[in-house]
């Protein structure tokens, strides 16, 4: 289980916003992690407000946890879908278009479509949860 301390920055009706302070996990602090720490500090994440402790207030520190499998899944969604969109868009355009700029435009459109789909899919599947221990 990957754990990280975060600071509660905003409270809304159905969700809360937390901010990572420093590296994401202990291996990243040591420079031996998966690279998620490269995303840096000040990374904001939404968390279901029902998971928060009752005494949580803005500025309090809580611990988030995430399965390593879901980090891998998020990476596959975040990198794989845009790449697949680029390959698919450029392949279809190369098959039917005579001009290179049409192929480049189709590749860029495929990346944009892949990013949009990845964002929608990842927001539903890779939410961290508040640690109960």
Offer a concise description of the structure.
The protein is an alpha+beta fold.
Which SSEs are present, and which pair or pack?
Blueprint: E1 2-11, E2 15-20, H1 26-29, E3 44-48, E4 61-66, H2 68-96, H3 100-125, E5 129-130
Antiparallel strand pairs: 1-2, 1-4, 2-3, 4-5
Helix pairs in contact: 2-3
If you had to describe this structure to a student in words, what would you say it looks like?
This protein is α+β, with helices and mostly antiparallel strands and 133 residues long. Helix content is 44%, strand content 22%. The chain has three helices and five strands, in the order ββαββααβ. The protein has helices at 26-29, 68-96, 100-125; strands at 2-11, 15-20, 44-48, 61-66, 129-130. A five-stranded antiparallel sheet has the order 3-2-1-4-5. The longest helix has 29 residues, at 68-96. The mean pLDDT is 79.
């Amino acid at each position: 289980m990957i754990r990280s301390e975060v600071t509660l920055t905003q409270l809304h009706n159905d969700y809360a916003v937390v901010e990572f302070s420093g590296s994401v996990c202990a291996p990243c602090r040591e420079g031996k992690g998966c690279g998620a720490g490269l995303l840096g500090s000040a990374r904001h994440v939404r968390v279901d407000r029902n998971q928060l402790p009752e005494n949580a207030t803005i500025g309090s520190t809580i611990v988030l946890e995430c399965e390593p499998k879901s980090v891998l899944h998020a990476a596959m969604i975040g990198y794989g879908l845009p790449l697949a969109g680029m390959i698919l868009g450029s392949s279809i355009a190369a098959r039917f278009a005579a001009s290179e700029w049409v192929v480049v435009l189709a590749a860029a459109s495929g990346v944009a479509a892949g990013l949009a789909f990845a964002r929608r899919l990842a927001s539903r599947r890779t939410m961290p949860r508040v640690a109960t221990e």
